[in-house]
């Protein structure tokens, strides 16, 4: 059984990383997540335009409200941009002594912009590192997992599996497996087609549990379904529908192998009308039934 997790990090309005992504990831895995916000960003898929870093006293109040009441034993820490905030977080970790502290460094944006000043990171190294159970490194990511948010997802997934009572090694193994199933294939092509293709993948990651039709994603991107098909075939030699189905199938597989949720509950969470509907879809996509997968991974 998963216990409550506290995530301490910045807000990402685009949903690709930060607080929003932590909540989505941990909830998707079946965990209970609480939060304390350190920074509010003005950003979208094009990048971060502005920061508003919350005062240390406000960060302290948020964290203490959660720790005093819900007593989470796993804390996941991300974006910290002020030295006084770092000191407050370290002080509270020493005081309340959660069982596990996971630090997922957030130092640069996906575009390479510096998010944390060197003196702040030095304070993190001095005051926070000694308290952490795990400090994630780029080498912890599975091969190919280098796009925006993957390090964040690894930290959130690791926090979830630790909250289930797994050892650090077991939790890291499961977290890496989870991240490896996230959508891959983001392109470095800066053309209009390349940009649209990446936006399409980001939209799938955001909406796949509710929408599986190509028309919905085409509307979100402001293009026709036919044009979206031309883009995905040009960039990835695949149809939009196959990319959407792959993401949904990977997410279902993650639920089947990492949670004990009933199949009916999983079916409803993905918008299927029944457990039988889920089984037909999953077998068509993967060649195996959900029950077969459950039996294999529960041995």
Describe it for me?
The chain has 13 helices and 6 strands. It has about 300 residues and is of the alpha/beta class. The protein has a 6-stranded mixed beta sheet with strand order 3-2-1-4-5-6. Strand 5, helix 4 and strand 6 form a beta-alpha-beta unit.
Give the overall average pLDDT: 87
Query: How many β-strand runs?
Result: 6
Q: Outline the biggest β-sheet.
A: 6 strands, mixed
Q: What is the H/E order?
A: EHEEHEHEHEHHHHHHHHH
Helical content band: 40-55%
| Sheet with the most strands: spatial strand order | 3-2-1-4-5-6
Task: Quickly give the structural class.
Answer: alpha/beta
In brief, what are we looking at here?
This protein is of the alpha/beta class and 299 residues long. The chain has 13 helices and 6 strands.
